[in-house]
TrEMBL record:
Matches recorded under InterPro entries: Dihaem_cytochrome-c (IPR018588), Multihaem_cyt_sf (IPR036280)
Name under which the protein is recorded: Diheme cytochrome c
UniProt entry tagged with the keyword Signal: yes
Pfam families: DHC (PF09626)
Record has Oxidoreductase as a keyword: no
UniProt keyword annotations, A-Z: Signal
Domain of life: Bacteria
Signal peptide: 1-24
Amino acid sequence: MKQKKYWGILLLSGCLTLSMATLAWTEDGEGEGHERHERGFLHQAADIGPITNKAYKTECSACHFAYPAGFLPERSWVKIMNNLDDHFGENAELNDKTRLVITDYLRTHAADRLPNRFSRSMLRSVDAGATPLRISETSYFRHKHREIPARMVTGNPKVGSFSNCLSCHSGADNGSFDEHSVTIPGFRQWED
Ligand code: HEC
Ligand code: HEC
């Protein structure tokens, strides 16, 4: 019995140390010098994660990839969900019940609710008074994609626009946006 307890405590303190380490390096800035720390085991634990809500996945992937909630602050999702009749030039209206279920999911999984390195960086890049409606127009997004020329995006029929995350991030459906598993269709493996 005693033996078991000892191992339990050891395991618990191991987990605590690990999660503290995760917190410590996610506080780091986005500077290139820190990129090295973002790889490996700890990195996995800090990914944005897959979409876990069926209604969201079904309804909001009819026209495009269902964007992970962790890429926008809660107030952005609320604004998007309150204006579905005029959604980027389309009508994406839902019945009240489905709309509420999806809004609730997006709010509870928004960038300000989930501590992972992407969401933290995203939040830092959005002004407190701003409510962006597009992930692709935030400074964090622009910063991460600044080296990609237009011919690979808007000039690329297999991509079309930056809103088409899945075309380049093949793991995006599983919540994986690792810059080391990106391929731009029609071009060689992306290298930094
Ligand atoms: C009827 C089609 C349609 C449906 C259904 C739809 N959308 Fe969209 N959505 C669009 C279009 C069109 C754009 C703009 C895409 C572009 O510029 O390439 C867009 C863009 C977005 C963006 C911004 C993407 C970026 O550039 O960062 C978000 C966020 C978004 N939609 C959320 C949702 C959510 C949440 C739902 C479900 C409630 C939803 N959409 C359902 C058509 C749709
Ligand atoms: C044209 C292809 C393309 C599209 C479309 C695209 N990305 Fe990217 N993305 C990249 C590339 C390439 C990188 C790596 C950039 C670098 O390392 O210089 C990247 C990097 C990222 C990163 C940083 C990854 C890391 O490990 O730090 C995130 C997060 C990301 N993209 C999210 C998105 C989201 C969300 C969308 C859709 C709204 C999207 N991307 C659309 C090509 C794309």
